[in-house]
Amino acid sequence: MEGKLKVLCLHGFTQNAETFRAKTGSVRKSLKSKVEFVFLDAPHSAAGFFDEADRSALGTTDGADADPVGPRAWWLMGENDAEDGAEATEPKRADREGESGGEKPRVRPAQSTNMRGWEATERLLRDAASALGPFDGVLGFSQGASTAALALATIPELRNTVTFAVLFSGFEPMDPRAAAKLRDSAGGGGAGVRGVRSLHVHGVADRMVARRRAEALMGAFEEQPELFSHEGGHGVPSSKPFRERLKQFVLEG
User: What is the rounded CA–CA span in Å between residue 37 and residue 11?
Assistant: First the structure.
């Protein structure tokens, strides 16, 4: 692997390292001679959050025998916690979207104003940077994209080596504490992520993350961020124009 760039890859909510590896196959292929991709599993279980139709549409996993890791999350949504206020270790099944009984729909990561469990993710990423790094870049999808940005603003072990980020369907967290960290990690005002080139990828048909949310995340980066818009939805595009731009972006530094 000598001479290759090393990129940390963070999957989306209810995916895991292996499902995200599969979803990025076409874009990785165009860079395989230049980049080593390192995939991590998020620390929290997201089992039971989506029903079968949602899992199929989003490319997530249900934790079947062939995939023992199961669906994972980089943070949990406090709005879905048990009524006693204790931090949940996995989502409650009783209030799953679409279930009868009058329960409220579950809050998804992009809508949550109360992120839970970030400390575990921070420890995991810090340990990964020390044990598997140093990393030259980060690549993340959806919740993983937002996690990547927040990590670059708050974790020196990543911030000190990473020079570029590729973020698919990312969004600025609505939790005010997380948003504040992204906006100003150094206490001096302005963007919280400094010295990192960023390519933000968003689909015009994305029903999970609106373009304005992607643009808000772009505002967390001090260096001029770039937006690549494609015709698809909430996912990783594989078109030739995108693969060519991605390759150019990753290697131009």
Answer: 12
CB of 15 within 8 A of CB of 72?
yes
Calpha distance 78→113 (Å, rounded) = 8
Q: Give the span between the Cα atoms of 117 and 140, in whole angstroms.
A: 18
pLDDT, position 132: 97
Q: What is the rounded (10 degree) CA torsion for 77, 81, 84, 88?
A: -90
Q: Which two tokens stand for residue 91?
A: 């989502």
Domains identified in the chain and CATH numbers: 1-253 (3.40.50.1820)
Question: Per-residue pLDDT for 217 more than 60?
Answer: yes
Structure tokens at 230: 């494609």
Q: What are the residues facing 9 on neighbouring strands?
A: 39, 139
Residue 228 has pLDDT above 90, yes or no: yes
Measured on CA atoms in the order 19, 121, 9, 81, is the torsion positive or negative? positive
Rg (alpha carbons) of the chain, rounded to whole number? 17
* Helix intervals (H) in the chain: 17-23, 25-29, 52-58, 118-132, 143-154, 156-159, 176-183, 211-218, 240-251
Q: How far apart are CA 216 and CA 116, in angstroms?
A: 21
SS3 (DSSP) at 97: coil
Tokens of 136: 């030259």
> Across residues 111-122, what is the average pLDDT?
94
The C-alpha angle with vertex 223 and arms to 26 and 195, in degrees rounded to 5, equals 85
**Tokens at residue 90, please?**
């996995």
Please state, as a whole number, how many other Cβ atoms lie within 10 Å of the Cβ of residue 36: 15
- All residues at 6 or more sequence positions from 13 whose CB lies less than 8 Å from its CB, including other chains: 46, 49, 60, 73, 74, 108, 109, 142, 143, 144
Residue 44, SS3 per DSSP: strand
